[in-house]
């Protein structure tokens, strides 16, 4: 785990600024949920943390080190996407071991590590299957497993449960939290679902139109919303 600091971060696409100076301090091992309406800049911010998007201005530090100029693979960060982005022509085992293979880890080490992670995710019986032979929840677990094998200090999730049905979504929320506690990673979790935010977060960051409206614990936001937007957003049904 590592602290993560987002200091006056801005993002422009051409002349259009979509993030207008975002400040967020995340401590070691914290589970932070970024929540806000569609288009407010959640994914853009997450992609900047991951190194998938240039930072137009400001600074991102991980573990006290400024990472603005570092490639994704130099950041000790793993990201799980909404679409899972599994490789369809690879088995579960190959999907999960791929990043280690790229890093030229010895074959036996890759196998051991993948089996280890697969066991924690209840996937050990599915290692030889292909993504199309799995349920939605299993695919989501493979996507998490693929991120976990590298033992990253920081985990980023971009709406990882939005393709699942309501019942499975609730189950996966608690699985993700259990994993977070077991692995002791720092986690930034994006959702547009305020119920998900309220139930999962140590700390919630409410975003709107490229700005942070409020940062606080679920209880603080519920009891003392900073403005009408936060009150309306937190109070409205999912
Ligand atoms: P969210 O994840 O909160 O739904 P996004 O981060 O995807 O929002 O988008 C924030 C804003 O940035 C939106 O107005 C979107 O249209 C714009 N945007 C995102 N990616 C690009 C891009 N590659 N080029 C231009 N505008 C973009
Ligand atoms: Mg998004």
From TrEMBL:
Keyword tRNA processing included in the entry's annotation: no
Domain ABC transporter: 4-234
Localisation per UniProt entry: Cell inner membrane
Alphabetical UniProt keywords: ATP-binding, Cell inner membrane, Cell membrane, Membrane, Nucleotide-binding, Sugar transport, Transport
Lineage: Bacteria, Pseudomonadati, Pseudomonadota, Alphaproteobacteria, Hyphomicrobiales
Major localisation: membrane
Record's keyword annotation contains Transit peptide: no
Residue range from the parent sequence: 1 to 238 of 356
Family assignment from sequence similarity: Belongs to the ABC transporter superfamily.
Name listed for the protein in its UniProt record: Multiple sugar transport system ATP-binding protein
GO BP of this protein: carbohydrate transport
GO terms for MF: ABC-type transporter activity; ATP binding; ATP hydrolysis activity
Membrane topology according to the record: Peripheral membrane protein
Protein source organism: Rhizobium soli
GO cellular component: ATP-binding cassette (ABC) transporter complex, substrate-binding subunit-containing
